[in-house]
Structure formats: C-alpha cells, structure tokens
Amino acid sequence: xxxxxxxxxxxxxxxxSLFDRGLTHGSTGNISARTPDGGLLVSPTGSSFxxxxxxxxxRFDVNGRHLSGDQPTKEMPLxxxxxxxxxQAGAVVHLHSCHAVAWSLMPDVDEDDFLPHLTPYAIMQxxxxxxxxxxxxxxxAMGDAVKGxxxxxxxxxxxxxxxxxxxxxVEAACNAIEELEANARLAVLTCGCRPRLLNKEQVADxxxxxxxxxxx
Length: 216
What we know:
It is a single chain. The chain is an alpha+beta fold. The protein contains 7 helices and 8 strands. It has an 8-stranded mixed beta sheet, sandwiched between helices. The chain is globular. The termini are far apart.
C-alpha cells in the first residue's frame, strides 16, 4: 500500500467518524490533506462525510491542477488560503458542527478570540480562534478573509456557518476541530451561568508551557 493510498483511506475513516458522531451532517463539511508529493486530496463537492470513497477524492498536483477524481468542494478557496499562508499546514477541515455555529450567533462573542477560556485544551490545540463575518457558501471572499490573517491563525469560525481548522496533518486537524466544537458546546451549556474562566496568568502559563501560537 502506498503512502497516498493510506492517506486516502485515513481521510475517509476520519470523515466518517466525524459524521457518525454528528459533528457534520448530510453533505456538509469538507476536508483536504497534502499528499507526499506536495499535491492535495480533497473531498468532492456535494459529498457526505459518511460515505466518502477513497478512489473518488479530488486529486490536485503541486501546482493546483485537478488531475483526477470528482470535482472538489466549492470551498476550495477557503482551503487554498490556509495552504498559501501557512507553510506548516498539512490538512484543512471544515464542519457545520452545531454548538460552534450556535456560539457564533451569540451577540457578545469576541470576534478576535471566539472561544471563552474554559479549558486548557482548546488553547493548546487551536490558539486564538478568529470569528469571521457571514459569507455566502462557496464565496471566494472567505478565502480572501483567511489570507488577510497572514497565516497568524490556524482556526477560524465562519459566522452562521461553521469552523475551519488547519493542522500539521489530517489527524491533528480533525482532533483540533473536535476540540473547537467541544469548547463551543461547553460555552453554550454555561451561557448565562457566569462560568469560572481561566484567568490571564493561567492562559499565559498554558501558552508558554505548550509553545502555543498565540496571536495577541
């Protein structure tokens, strides 16, 4: 089995796990990963995370030319923006997870630091998450907004839409986006209850101890 074949299988296995646990639904969400030769494997447009076929993933070469497989997701500009601005990005995942979307609807959410500091794990895996404004699905302006961050964020939240996370590989990206949804769920569950947040000193200690990319 080649490295690319293993990557194809892993993408589909992880996507199905996300789907089976309700972290995205229907034909929502998209996923991409760097191939060993510097190209990309991308989930096809209109596909379900629960039923991805390894052999039908969209295959791009290192120059961005579509070589084989089905037509890619319409959110390609979003994925490309992360790869173009973050050299360390090996995968990008976008979900329509319910609690993250619900938290994006709240009127007082901090646009520059989307997730409240409830646990250390979201800080460790995501750094500061940027809340971007609403864009029509498939709008190339989403990619422009990510490029405008100049590679300083590994995760963004598209308001009224869903989270997008880049990671060093597809497993890291999936783990991080799951953490984003879990933290958003805690935020929704504790909304209005005046939860005890991590203080500035505790956050700073986590950032330093785990070498977190933390855009001020």
